[in-house]
Amino acid sequence: MALTQTGTPSRADRLLAKATQYNKSHSIAGYTTQTLANMARQVDFEDARVLEFGGWNIPTDITLGDLGARSWLSVDMIGSLSGTYQQKRFSHLKDIEIFDYVQGADRIERDGFTVVDGDATMLPEPYFGKFDIVVTIATIEHVLDMVTFLEKAWRALKPGGTLVTRFGPVWASHIGHHAFVSPEINFQKPEGPIGPWGHLLHRPGDMQDILSKAGEPGNVIARTIHQLYTSPRINRLFNEDYHALFANSRFDETTWTPCWGKKPDQDMFDRLRLAHPHAHDFSTGAWETVSRKG
């Protein structure tokens, strides 16, 4: 399905009008409904076969209802801790049947909602060329092998299909460490002891000293150092890395829209450039992209 000029704004507007309702009934974050509405203005979900990488928490009231998709097949690593967390958090997932890649292949041509437990970078051949749209929200920043990820997305699409994404926080941003260790050490609280861009300015030993002086206990410090510098849960790619990866993929074109960010002052920018001379964009925290397969 090719990109449309206007998408389906009526569906987007209807979805946004229900954002508060979905937050209460399904614990769906506001940015998720906003992102899906933005996507609906870029591509036409009507009667589309959609493959989602990551997530799987979006209720069918949205995917098959508001967006009007014919089918929505979500691939996520359900067996991981995050998968268990999602089933506990989202009540509408408790009774969902989960398939492996082999079982899920029999459901590709079926209408409705399907969840497959699998790694997107291991997407097998039966899924290639079967989908009009590939969607991924708040997932790419966690992908370690982006070359394979983009290749699998490209292969999954039919000719003329579209990959639409929303990802962040990007590593280069002021909260790009994405850490969530305690109420104080939390990427959603940038004024905490890590500090804006602290993960980019300080080495592990220096950060350990900073956290110790802030009075953080040893176990919290150890977990923080791990999440910031060694945990495989984020890929630590800079904005320039993402642009290069998409440009070098097999997608014909990609449009980029920044979602949010924070611009460093000149002194901070100079310090960041000194520490990371290959990077220039330390402001953009998240992106929405649209990529077309010819």
Automatic annotation (TrEMBL):
<feature type="domain" description="Methyltransferase type 11">
    <location>
        <begin position="106"/>
        <end position="164"/>
    </location>
</feature>
<protein>
    <submittedName>
        <fullName>Class I SAM-dependent methyltransferase</fullName>
    </submittedName>
</protein>
<dbReference type="GO" id="GO:0032259">
    <property type="term" value="P:methylation"/>
</dbReference>
<dbReference type="GO" id="GO:0008757">
    <property type="term" value="F:S-adenosylmethionine-dependent methyltransferase activity"/>
</dbReference>
<keyword id="KW-0808">Transferase</keyword>
<dbReference type="InterPro" id="IPR029063">
    <property type="entry name" value="SAM-dependent_MTases_sf"/>
</dbReference>
<dbReference type="Pfam" id="PF08241">
    <property type="entry name" value="Methyltransf_11"/>
</dbReference>
<keyword id="KW-0489">Methyltransferase</keyword>
<dbReference type="InterPro" id="IPR013216">
    <property type="entry name" value="Methyltransf_11"/>
</dbReference>
